[in-house]
Structure formats: C-alpha cells, structure tokens
TrEMBL record:
Organism: Pseudonocardia xinjiangensis
Residues covered by the GFO/IDH/MocA-like oxidoreductase domain: 141-267
Region (Disordered): 347-386
Top-level division of the source organism's lineage: Bacteria
SUPFAM superfamilies to which the protein is assigned, alphabetical: Glyceraldehyde-3-phosphate dehydrogenase-like, C-terminal domain, NAD(P)-binding Rossmann-fold domains
UniProt protein name: Gfo/Idh/MocA family oxidoreductase
Gfo/Idh/MocA-like oxidoreductase N-terminal domain ranges (all copies): 9-125
Length: 386
C-alpha cells in the first residue's frame, strides 16, 4: 500500500523549541488530514513535556535521542527544527534512515556546508527534501509575484528595502536564544533572519548577478555583524539596495516597506504580520491595495507543498538549491565587505536560479484552501507632475 493510501503522513519532530511552538505546530494542527505527529525528540525533557502539554501528543512518543526516533517504523518523514549548526548532521542522519525531510533554514553554517548539503541531497534522489523557507509560500509575496509576472509595473528597474530592529537577549522570544547571540555560523542574524529577506527579494526580482556589501559591528550583545547593506545587480537588469540593522538600542518604528519601481508602475509590500498589504500604483496615479489578514507567514502552504511532494511527487519550491542561492547572496555580501570589492554571483548552484511560483495543488487560484482573509480596495489619485 502506498503512502498516499495510508492516511496522514506520520511525522516525527526533531527539536520542539520556539520555532515548532510558534510557527510549525499552529499550521500542523490545521492539517490533520495530511499529518499526524507520531514521535518527537528534544535534548531537553522539559521542552518535550512542554510540547506534549500544548499539542496533546503523548509523551510515550518522546525521546532525547533523535536516532531512536529515526529507527521507528511509524515515522515516514521528519521536521527538523534544531539550532543551525546541527541542521546538516540531523538531516544527514534522517536521509540515511530513509525518511523524507523538511528542514529549517538555512542549508548550513557557511558556504562549504551549504555545498555539502547539496551533495547530500543528490545522494538520496528518492527522498523528498524541503528547506523551510516560508517566504516562498507567503500569500502577499506570491500575490505580488503574480502581479509582476503579469507585467503590472512594466519592466522592473529599481528595488529598495530597509529593515531596522532591536536585537537584545529577551527571554522567551527568538531574539533571546543563546545560540543566536553567539552564533557558530557566518554572518549571525543575517544568515538566520536575513535569508528570509533575500528569499523575498529573489521571489520578486529574480536572481542577482553581482553584490557589493558593507557591514558594521555595532551591537555588543551579539558576536556577529549588526548592520549589513547590499547593492545588487539583478539578471533582469534591475538594480537594488537592501539594508538591515539589528540594533542594541531602541530604534523608532519604521514602515519597512519593500518598493519595486517599474517603467509602468510601482509595487509596495508593507504592513505587519497581522495585516500585510500589497499596493500597486499605476502610471496614471490610481492604486490597488490588496490586504491579507490572518495569514500564517507561509507555514501552512509550505507543509502542503511538502506533503504533496511526498504523496504525489509534486515539485518542491523550497529546495536545497534555492536555500543555497539565498545564502550565497548574504555570504558574498560579507566577502565584499571584508575585501572592499564587488563580488560576482556566477557560481550559484546549477538549477538554483529563478524561484517558481507555488500554487495549491488541484486549485485554480493562488489561495485555494489556505487560511486567511483577502480584500481589495482601489483609489484614484492625481498624477504627480514634474
């Protein structure tokens, strides 16, 4: 009997920390027709007990040794959510045990390990591997990408984006995780949180061919660069700038809009997670704003893509190659900052270029079967005169 005929995928969780509690479990519990958690592993018994308490999964399925979980016959696939320095090793163990793998990003601690991850995937072509880049699946980003594909702003010529956040060790939130403040991976927060932003940029602008970066170390609470700014040249001919600061001191709130300027319009992605907005301003000054409420940042769709790949052979969007392509932009920017030179991105992994636009399997639209509410409002504005 094939897996698709057996009911939900029997899923093992390796790591049950904040990412599972805040991000993955809320999506998993809405997908009971696709997944059932049969086992979970964590080095911390207390963390395992916490997961059991809020999920209802019996502690009989718990172990402190992920090898014991991988030896179970009632685990078809695993979700790996461990600290970045351990991702490769646990993924390697899981593939060797014959499990399909959904692994948190990024695909390694540096370029050498990223390329080792590529080689690892190639050794197990019969297995499904998805690197958890949820921004590839986020509704507002996919909607913006569809507009761009339809020519809504004409030819893209400029991208601009700036992020400003405070990053200090607050307990109980991602920023408080000790391994994030003393990272054993190059670039610290810019290879952790920053690859999400690069994923969004690549979704909307395509692949970059050159990068010039500059960095600052201005946060004494993290052992990594606090500031990174990139000037990018894209394969499509557009140029762009991305700047991120993770400050030790309080910073004023900023809109953090990503703006895309085209020959026939401007596209702006804005708003907090609770109300994402995509605003298209046309050449005549009229605007269309699509508002997304109650979306989950793409985790639901990511899990759908993984289950459809495992059950039905659907292609994975969040491949190892796509994750490595995201990483290389950050890593080349760090190289550029250290060497004070422009770096080429012509050695990206073969086949990694161009992020495909994910659509729900069997649906006719972008959002069929996904959570959240979407609404549209339009306005007519006078044309700006020079």
């Amino acid at each position: 009997m094939g897996l698709s005929e057996k009911g939900p995928i029997r899923l093992g969780l390796i790591g049950t920390g904040l990412a599972v509690e805040k991000l993955h479990w809320p999506a998993l519990r809405r997908l009971a027709d696709r997944y059932v958690v049969t086992a979970f592993a964590d080095h911390s018994v207390a963390q395992g007990e916490r997961f059991s308490s809020y999920s209802g999964v019996d502690m009989a399925g718990f172990t402190t040794d992920h090898h014991r979980l991988l030896a179970r016959d009632d685990v078809d696939a695993v979700l790996i959510s461990v600290p970045i320095p351990s991702l490769y090793e646990v993924a390697q163990d899981s593939l060797a045990a014959g499990k399909d793998v959904l692994c948190e990003k990024p695909a390694g601690t540096d370029e050498d390990q990223a390329r080792a991850f590529l080689a690892l995937e190639e050794r197990y072509p019969q297995r499904t591997v998805l690197i958890g880049e949820n921004y590839f699946y986020r509704d507002d980003i996919r909607h913006a990408r569809a507009l761009l594909d339809d020519g809504a702003i004409g030819k893209l010529h400029l991208m601009a984006w700036r992020r400003a956040r405070r990053l200090v060790p607050w307990e109980g939130v991602f920023a408080g995780t000790p391994w994030r403040h003393r990272p054993q991976y190059r670039g610290g927060v810019h290879l952790d949180a920053g690859v999400h932003d690069i994923a969004q940029i690549r979704m909307l602008c395509g692949d970059a061919v050159r990068v010039h970066g500059a960095a600052q170390w201005a946060n004494s609470t993290i052992e990594a660069p606090s500031d990174l700014t990139l000037n990018l040249v894209f394969a499509c001919g557009a140029i762009g700038n991305y700047t991120a600061t993770y400050s030790e001191i309080a910073v004023p709130k900023e809109t953090e809009d990503l703006r895309l300027y085209g020959t026939e319009g401007v596209l702006v992605l804005s708003g907090p997670e609770s109300e994402r907005q995509v605003t298209l301003t046309r050449a005549d000054g009229s605007t269309q704003t699509d508002v997304f409420r109650g979306i989950d940042n793409g985790y639901h769709a990511e899990l759908c893509n993984f289950s459809d790949a495992v059950r039905h052979g659907e292609p994975v969007v969040g491949t190892v190659r796509q994750s490595v392509a995201n990483m290389l932009i950050v890593l080349r920017a760090l190289d550029s900052a250290e060497q004070d030179t422009v770096m080429a991105l012509d050695d990206a992994p073969p086949g990694g270029g161009g992020v495909p636009l994910w659509r729900p399997r069997g649906g006719s639209g972008l959002f069929d079967g996904l959570p959240g509410e979407r609404s549209t409002r339009t306005a007519i504005s006078p044309v700006d005169r020079p």
